[in-house]
Amino acid sequence: MRRALCPGTFDPVTLGHLDIVERAAMLFDEVVVAVALNPDKGYGPLFTIEERVEFIHDAVAHLTNVMVRPFDTLLVEFAQMNDAHVIIKGLRAVTDFEHEFQMAQLNYRLDKDIETMFIMSIPEYAYLSSSAVREIAQHGGTVRGLVPDAVCEALAARLNQSH
Ligand code: PNS
């Protein structure tokens, strides 16, 4: 049984994230989408952990080998607890590389049995990030086509804007 983790903050999940999860689900027997309780960026998330888990849960309902779980530990500890030996990250552009390279090196140092692997984003989503989605929505722009429709509605409701 080959189980991989797709970790992230997913605040909110984007179609770019879901593309990576879907492709990982074709490569591994099981995929656990690991939703971090708090962003590593020093500010609180826009959506609660329950909301972020539910958005992903609904969006991956058609993928029978994908589970969604929250975590609030080191990622390698969560991988150990879930008997996962692979961490899958999406890479969009060179700008992602340095940060991802650092995390992969540190995680390798923490547990050499856990391998980080990268899936390259498709060009359509190469510019897409949760922070860009939040910023567009906060300024009243439309994010339809960038996130699942349910997330679109939730962003509008949360930010009290029409879109
Ligand atoms: O959505 P993001 O910001 O790319 O996700 C980053 C995440 C959640 C994968 C990363 O912050 C993480 O692994 N957090 C758990 C704490 C941890 O293990 N930190 C050490 C990694 S260097």
Reported by name, the CATH topology is Rossmann fold
Q: Determine the number of helices (DSSP H or I, runs of at least 4 residues).
A: 6
Q: How helical, in percent, are the residues?
A: 40-55%
Number of domains: 1
Strand tally is: 5
Looking across the biggest beta sheet, what order are the strands in? 3-2-1-4-5
Q: Which cofactor or ligand species appear?
A: 4'-phosphopantetheine
The radius of gyration computed from the alpha-carbon positions, rounded to a whole number of angstroms, is 15 Å
Q: Strand-residue fraction?
A: 15-25%
- Which consecutive residue ranges, at least 5 long each, have pLDDT under 50? none
**How do the SSEs run, as a string of H and E?**
EHEHEHEHEHH
Main sheet summary: 5 strands, parallel
Shape category: globular
What can be said about this structure in brief?
With 163 residues, this protein is of the alpha/beta class.
Plain-language structure description:
The chain is an alpha/beta fold and 163 residues long. It has a single domain (3-126), classed as Rossmann fold (3-Layer(aba) Sandwich), CATH 3.40.50.620. The chain is built from 6 helices and 5 strands; from the N terminus they run βαβαβαβαβαα. Strands 3-2-1-4-5 form a 5-stranded parallel β-sheet, sandwiched between helices. Strand 4 (86-91), helix 4 and strand 5 form a beta-alpha-beta unit. The longest helix is centred in the middle third of the chain and has 17 residues, at 94-110. It starts with a strand and ends in a 5-residue tail after the last helix. The site of 4'-phosphopantetheine (PNS) has 11 residues, from strand 1 and helix 4.
